[in-house]
Amino acid sequence: MAEEWKDKVIQEKLGGKKDWTDEERAELCRQLDEELESHIDAMGKTRYKGGWTEENWKEQMAEHPLFAPYIQEEGATQAEAPINPLSEGLAQLKFDPDHNTPEEVAQNYKEEGVLQFKYKKYRLAVANFSEGLKQKCSDYDLNAQLHNNRAAAHCHLGNYRSAIKDCEKAVELKTDYLKAVVRAVDCATKLNSWDEVFHWCDRGLRLDPTNQKLKTDRLTALKEKKLLERNARKMARDENKKATEEQNLINAIKNSGVQLGSTVLKGSSSISLSDLEPCHPAAQGSRVHFNESGELVWPVMLLYPEHHETDIIQEFPESDHIIDHLEVIFGKEAAPAPWDTEHKYQVNNLHVFFEDKEKTKLCKVDPNQTLQQVLRDPRYHVLGGTPG
Amino acid sequence: MLMDTVNELVQLLAADGRIDVKSAACMTAAQLTGTPEGLSLLTSRADILTAILHLIRDSEIYTSKDAMRALINISAEESGAEGLLALKDVDITAEMVKCIEDTEYPHADFACGILANLSKPKHLCQRVFDRITDGPTKLEGLVYILSQIDYNKKGAKLHLLASFISNFSQLAAGRRQMMDKDGFVLQRLLSFMDYKESKGRRMSIIATVHNCCFEKKYHPWLMGEDVDLVPRLLLPLAGPDTFNEEENDSLPFDLQYLPDDKEREPDPEIRKLLLEALMQLCITRAGREVMRKQNIYLILREHHKWEEDRHCIMLNEDLVNLLIRTEDEIGVEDLSSVEVPPDMARKFVEHDMEFLMTGSSDLNSLTEAMVEELK
Where are the transmembrane segments (chain B) (predicted)? Predict the structure, then answer.
């Protein structure tokens, strides 16, 4: 085919002449050269316009894929980002396994990742390091670095657990990798996982016994852990104390012969503290308790069915006489209650009753008795922790 | 006649021999070490010792085990230990350290025992220590191995490694290496002070710490926050919490709000070591003041109520005595500088003996007499 083409050219351009002498050839060359020169001259002297100027060379350089950092926008996948064909070509060259050894590819991914890291694109950095590790190249040091770098990126993302896993791998590959150990200590500290901090500090101090930072970190972890343990012990003790006190209270009530009714039907015979919580809003917060002399103090409710009113005596020691409290409420010095328009409620006029267990009868109460005596009455039931 | 048999034994122990022959020979050697005559016979022959040493890594596990057993018995005798250390062709300490470092070596516990035996006699301890320090692993490496539970994958617990290390604490150089501020050795041991799984390890570690407390120069470091030894010495002596909130808050964190099931150290020997260590830390005024600030008197008070061992009670009272008095009363900055005249010293010893026998205590009058005399 080349022969045919040659014949064609000779036929068309050279008039079919096939036998040339040296001089004739030289002459032909000279002619061709002249033609070329005059053609170029004819083109006119125009300046090359596409080049970079003094002003715009920096921008141009930043945009040109060969010089600019190859940065994808956050979140964009390779398909979406508008890629300069030149940069895509470069990328393919760098990462193409056909053109590179696994070590080179891994190294390139590592550099890529480091670049992303510098620009704080940590997720992309992680992706790049992961790609580098996928190459499973045989350079242990490089793989260790990839793990360590990925750990650093994870750290910045707040994925401390993943970071520690990467540090572990890094140290597996490179047993004297102090940087990875220190990173693991920092991550464990952020997680407040003190036992892990000890573990990593111990490993680090084996590599470098003089390392002051590790010693300090270990001490901090020790202090924190001690504090945690001590607080746990204190809490346990306080809870125990509370439980014993509650139990004592319940026992005292049981033993005093006071009967508790429950607003909710329950099958169990044991009383819990919630049974004693007063339901009445005014009595909230003043649950039955022991006072200094060791006697029970109850919140007592007085009901006035005539006027549909109630009163609450928040603290009524058992040993007090009912009449004393009535004296306070209805006595001569006390102002009459707002609903007692006719001032009928006077101490000597008052009849005090309680409802018996089955709510069938009203039982008369002698006001000269103490609360304790009234509560002990077998017909009496305390409801909602509030004798009424 | 006997020499021929022994020579034959050496040949049978050759490492490249037949498996069953080696095994039988090794077993014989081990059995020989069980008797005093056999032991001294083997000890006298460096070639037998070397041959046994070469079998400790034999592929046949019973052979290697017998080899180690033989070495344990040999090293337990001082003459045997000398003989082993004197071997020129092989460095026994280096070999044992390799066994310990090897996570897969099944007889690592024997190796620890052998090293402990070798370092027990005082005049040999320094030699072993020097060899370890010159070697690659060093004290620091051994402590690191000791501090990892389940280091050995074949079931060796390495508790005797603690005994070996505690032998080093008998040497001043050993103590100083352990307490080197630039290194990180003593701190690793502290967490085993309440190690319940092994009394041996616990005792050895506490003995080590106890010995270290005799280095007065290190007291500030020991009682400072890098090591914070005082609460750790007290924790085994402390029982369940009996203090109110204010008293609790005055104690170091480790000793606050102890649970109801807190047990004190059951072994009186160990308690004695703890109390003696605390005594040592009281030698300087600064030390006493640290202890007063940490309010350890409370712990000692409760301990005194519980303690039954006479010796421990005596130590407790001595300690409390020092802490309760003011510095003016004590009058001396550094108690180790006080020279006790020999007759007074004798009287003190007699008094201690009397206390231990009968339990009566008239220490105060005796102390005052001594203070008078020294003025």
Answer: none
Q: Is A206 on the interface with B (CB under 8 A)?
A: yes
| Closest Cα in chain B, distance from residue A185 (Å) | 17
DSSP at A174:
S
CA angle centred on A70, ends A68 and A74, rounded to 5°: 130
Q: Does A191 touch chain B (CB under 8 A)?
A: no
Closest residue to A219, CB basis, from B182, B225, B256? B225
Q: Does A230 touch chain B (CB under 8 A)?
A: yes
Chain B residues with CB within 8 Å of chain A CB: 140-141, 144, 147, 182-185, 187-188, 225-226, 241, 248, 253-254, 256-259
* Cα dihedral: A326, A329, A332, A334 (round 10): 170
DSSP assignment of A251-286: HHHHHTT--EE-SS--S-S---GGGGS--SGGGTT-
pTM for the model: 0.73
Measured distance CA(A40)–CA(A50) in Å, rounded: 19
Q: If you measure CA to CA, which chain A residue comes closest to B140?
A: A206
The burial of A39, by beta-carbon neighbours within 10 Å (0-12 exposed, 13-18 middle, 19 or more buried), is given as exposed
A192-224 pLDDT, tens per residue? Answer: 999 999 999 999 998 898 898 999 999 999 999
Contact B327, B288 (CB under 8 A): yes
**C-alpha B219: how far from its chain's center?**
19
* A253, A296 Cβ separation under 8 angstroms: yes
A215 — contact with chain B (CB < 8 Å)? yes
Q: Which SS3 state, helix, strand or coil, does residue A225 take? A: helix
Which residues of chain B make contact with A218, given a CB cutoff of 8 A? Answer: 187
Q: How many CA atoms lie within 13 A of B108 on its CB side?
A: 24
Q: Running DSSP on this structure, what letter comes out for residue B167? A: H
Q: pLDDT tens-digit profile of A150-167?
A: 999 999 999 999 999 999
Inter-chain contact B258–A233, Cβ cutoff 8 Å? yes
What secondary structure letter does DSSP report for B277? H
Q: Residue A163 to residues A156, A166, A191: CA-CA distances in angstroms?
A: 9, 5, 11
Instruction: Using only the alpha carbons of chain B, give its radius of gyration.
Output: 25
Q: What is the pLDDT of residues A226-285, one digit of tens each?
A: 999 999 999 998 998 888 888 888 788 777 777 666 543 333 344 555 556 655 555 555
Structure tokens at B119: 């370092």
Residue type, B297: Y
* Per-residue DSSP letter, A136: -
Contact A237 B257 (CB under 8 A): yes
Is B147–A202 a contact, with Cβ atoms under 8 angstroms apart?
yes
Q: What is the DSSP letter of B242?
A: -
Residues in chain A within 8 Å Cβ distance of B244: none
- The amino acid at residue B188 is R
